[in-house]
Design goal:
About 25% of the residues lie in helices and about 25% in strands. By secondary structure, the chain is an alpha+beta fold. The protein has three domains: about 70 residues, no CATH class; about 45 residues; about 90 residues, no CATH class. Strands 1, 2, 3, 4 and 5 form a five-stranded mixed beta sheet that branches. It has a four-stranded mixed beta sheet with strand order 10-9-6-11, with helices on one face. Strands 7-8 form a two-stranded antiparallel sheet. Strand 7 and strand 8 form a beta hairpin. The protein is extended and about 60 Å long.
Length: about 230
């Protein structure tokens, strides 16, 4: 460990896990080092002074003749290939948001960006949440996020970006919001319903014709369009 006069600390680490030298494709261990690289993964803060981690990784040659992978860089479970944030830092950020903190506030406290904290919390939520029971009354609502925007296409033309979202809620039970999907078209509604194999009965508004034309339901549900 190195410590500067300002109090900032730099910790130099190497992988002690023997499995880090195994080829991720064929699983054969390698002892042929091609080169070394130093990465700077973000890790949990420790103490009041900033802490920087520098990991000296080895790039190995895969000597297995039948393996299509010729070279690979060692990795561990906490830092899989391509990762720039340690697993424990992602878990800490997700737990902070799960305890009631906002994504923005957590990102300010940690050396992470807003999208990184949000992705960590989404992964955490997916691991602990289960699919809710089918609702008796399914409600839908459209929400527009800001004004319409236009972007350039590869052909040089202009394309309007989708600003609408369709939200699905449980009107009769206590499940609350069930999900959302991009767009306000009938195809967007069908795609969301089809993924859950749930249907609706007596839908109102623009979605009524869509559901009757494209879906076949074994367990009828009622769907209500919110105002």
């Amino acid at each position: 460990m190195q410590q500067r006069e300002s109090g900032e600390r730099t910790v130099h680490v190497v992988a002690a896990d023997p499995s880090a030298s195994a080829c991720p494709v064929c699983g054969v261990f390698s002892t042929s080092v091609r080169q070394h690289r130093t990465t700077r993964p973000k890790d949990l803060p420790y103490g009041e002074a900033p802490l920087e981690v520098r990991w000296r990784t080895a790039q190995y040659r895969c000597r297995e003749p039948r393996c299509p992978r010729k070279a690979f860089t060692e990795s561990i479970a906490e830092l899989p290939p391509g990762a720039r944030v340690t697993g424990r830092l992602r878990r800490f950020a997700a737990a902070a948001v799960g305890d009631g903190g906002s994504v923005a506030r957590t990102a300010q406290r940690l050396p992470l960006s807003w999208p990184t904290v949000h992705r960590a919390f989404v992964c955490y939520a997916d691991s602990v949440l289960t699919e809710p029971a089918p609702p008796a009354v399914l409600g839908t609502d459209e929400t527009r996020r800001g004004r319409p925007r236009w972007t350039r296409t590869e052909a040089g033309g202009w394309e309007r970006r989708e600003r609408f979202e369709t939200n699905f809620v449980d009107l009769a039970g206590d499940a609350g919001p069930l999900g959302q999907t991009a767009g306000r078209t009938g195809a967007a509604v069908v795609r969301w319903l089809d993924a859950r194999r749930e249907g609706c009965k007596d839908p109102s508004g623009w979605s009524r014709g869509v559901v009757r034309r494209q879906l076949r339901f074994r367990t009828p549900l009622r769907m209500k369009h919110l105002n």
